[in-house]
Write a structure and sequence with these properties.
alpha+beta; three-stranded antiparallel beta sheet; 3 strands; elongated; binds zinc ion
Length: about 80
């Protein structure tokens, strides 16, 4: 996971094609972008503002699960 800046070497090394669509809005994303790679190698490319919107919606969905199941979901961290 990272923020990709256009001036950074890792932008070229990331293998992200120019104009990759943002996962959230579908519009062309360019640096700076939020970039994550999933465990199976799938790339997630987001405009920074779209990352905020997506995060809020993900939190909302988790809150719904917690409220419905009456459980508290713990954060999963790497050791
Ligand atoms: Zn977007």
């Amino acid at each position: 996971m990272a923020v990709i800046w256009k001036s950074e070497k890792r932008y070229e090394e990331s293998g992200i094609p120019m104009g990759e669509p943002c996962f959230f809005c579908g519009e062309e994303a360019d640096a700076p972008m939020v970039f994550w790679t999933g465990v199976k190698g799938t790339n997630l490319v987001l405009h920074p503002a779209c990352a905020v919107d997506l995060t809020l919606r993900l939190y909302r969905d988790v809150h719904e699960v917690q409220q419905t199941l009456e459980v508290h979901i713990e954060m999963v961290t790497e050791s």
